[in-house]
Amino acid sequence: MSQKGCLSDAHGACISEPMCVYHKSEYIRFYCEECRVFICDDCITGKGKHRRCFKTKLSDYGNRTRRLLRERTKRAEDKLSKLSSELDLAMHVQKRFNEAVDESISSVVFRREIIRQKFDDLQKELITKLDGLRNQANTQYEEFINLHTNQYCKMKEVTETIRTTETEMTENDMVMYTSKLNKFIDSSEAVPKLEPPSYVTDDKYFSSKYLRQLFGDIEFVELNCQPIATY
Question: Which residue ranges does the record assign to the B box-type domain (predicted)?
Answer without folding.
Answer: 15-61
